[in-house]
Amino acid sequence: MIITDNHMHIDPLKGIGLDAVREFSSVGGTHFMLVYKTAYDSGTEVNSGKDFGKSYDYLIGLSNKINRETDAKSYPIIGLHPAEFHHLILDFGREKAFDIALEALNEIEKRISDGLAYGIGEVGRPHYDVDKDITDASNQFLIEVLKVSKKLKCPVQLHTETFDENKFIELGEMVKKYGDPGKIIKHFSPPMVSICEKIGIYPSIIAREKNILKACEEGKRFLMETDYIDDNERPGAVVGPKTVPKTTKKLFEKGILTKEDIDYVHRYLIEKIYGIEII
């Protein structure tokens, strides 16, 4: 049985590192998207967009190590976290920060084009309240990300403020104009499967049982994630690395998910969105 966590962070510097991956695989987890945190989290000082390349290479190297030394298969996803972009604006001003972000996007594009990474993420808008100027700059950068995603035919994992139906519709309009809805994933999504299907994007839902039960009321067109951050100061946040496999198996035992459903969520959709073959 293939079980995929669509959004997990592994941090050997601040967390338990590969032991978290071993926890994931010990309960049946097989594949996961290894998502970039920030340059700071890899010990990289940023003064230019090219500096981000060092942190992307760190994550790619970590993915290779995971794939060599554990039973799980990881896929690196590299981006520019919205909070990181916010800090760039505070440090350098909006104009220079935007130039740095575009340079970072160029570094991302190179690595995806070379087959070293499998998507852009997490990118988008801060999840906390910010001035309109920050939101506008974040949207401006997101448009550039969507254009690159469409050109490369690669997925984007979006980090945003809390979403409701109106926010999804707004996002859908932006994605339709600049990107490819079929390559857009709303990370940390509410279990609003129907509206996501309507606008063409995919929700990636925190795999608490109540969330997945709610999602299943509207269909099976969703991904599952933990958003595990692997930080010893916040152990088990957002939810622990065992959560996706355990919730999947629990709902199978209850008859909520069939084997066909599990294959659809954890293999078919992942292959379709990311353009990979899971074996």
Characterization of the model:
By secondary structure, the chain is α/β, with parallel strands linked by helices. The chain has one domain: Alpha-Beta Barrel (TIM Barrel), CATH 3.20.20. Helix content is 49%, strand content 13%. The protein has ten helices and eight strands. The protein has a five-stranded parallel sheet. A three-stranded parallel sheet has the order 1-2-3. The longest helix is centred in the N-terminal third of the chain and has 21 residues. It is globular and about 55 Å long. The model has no long low-confidence stretch (mean pLDDT 97).
Brief descriptors of the model:
UCP004961, globular, Metal_Hydrolase, 3-stranded parallel sheet, 49% helix, alpha/beta, TatD-like, 279 residues, TIM Barrel, hydrolase activity, acting on ester bonds
Topology:
Blueprint: E1 4-8, H1 18-26, E2 31-35, H2 49-69, E3 73-77, H3 82-92, H4 94-113, E4 120-124, H5 132-152, E5 156-159, H6 165-178, E6 184-186, H7 193-199, E7 202-206, H8 209-216, E8 223-225, H9 243-253, H10 259-274
Parallel strand pairs: 1-2, 2-3, 4-5, 5-6, 6-7, 7-8
